[in-house]
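Notes to self after the call with IL:
- keep both proteins in one doc
- input above output, always
- annotate only the second one for now

Protein 1:
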Amino acid sequence: MDIPTHLNHRPIIKWENYSKTDGRFANDTDAQGLSVGVAQWNSSDENKPDISVKVWRHTGEKWSRQSEEIPPHRLVDMTSLLCSALMYVRNDVLLSDESFSITSSQDAILLEKLKEGLQKEEPFLESSLLRLAKMLKQLGYCDKLK
């Protein structure tokens, strides 16, 4: 499904037909596309546009107002948080530092639900995380860790 270009968020880089590859929701999702573009909250300064990432949802009849639009750094921060959760589930290690200060629940039942839920997601996460790792390497970020 083509992502609309007439709404306030103006897509520049698009992943159309995302519904076919939406992890365990593939072919049964309202998330029809992902995009990086000019944010709907864009400032009036055209020389410094605000960029956002967006999940495009479609109800079957119209584009949903429930489509999420967030600043790119939050998407990366959420991915970091997910990676920390994966490490915690696998090795009981919570990846954290001064600029990434996170904590975990002390509720054993919730921690077990996290473990079970992420194990269920693992087959779908693996291909996405491998793609991310490859792209980070191509962008030179892995070299900066040395």
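Protein 2 (the one to annotate):
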Amino acid sequence: MAANETTVQEFTVTRTFNAPRDVVWKAWTERAALEEWWGPKGCVIEVEELDVSAGGIFHYSMEMQEGCKWWGIFHYEEVVKPERIVFVNSFSNEAGDITRAPFSESWPKEVRNVVTFHDEGGKTRLELRGQPIRATAEECAFFEGMFGSMQQGFGGTFDQLEAYLAK
């Protein structure tokens, strides 16, 4: 680690889904599926662009319940079907440029996420690990302070994934 880098605790969330790994993988990699389950509970997702490959992006909008529209973008770094997806997640504008989070100037601009898909005899244990990159000490501290909220948020998102997989 370089002298100017800040150490930050990794955020982790794990969930087991009652679906085979290839089905869960498709839910993470297909446009129609992502529009049905990705994002905060109650928001409407629209995929602007999706290329799930190393160097590709997932650029999307989130119409929030309050009526405002937020944008997000994944920059995929590694895609190993059907085992692992590594991406850097950011808030963005409509053009896909990285922006600050609409809810706080202290949220890190970039969070690297590693999603692993574990085959467990017809079920899939999914593990998501996230950590800010190129972040200030203030951003790292804010990120760590949001773990409870993030657990709740991903809980709702994964509830939506579970409902999607049950169809």
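Annotation: The longest helix spans residues 147-165. The mean pLDDT is 95.
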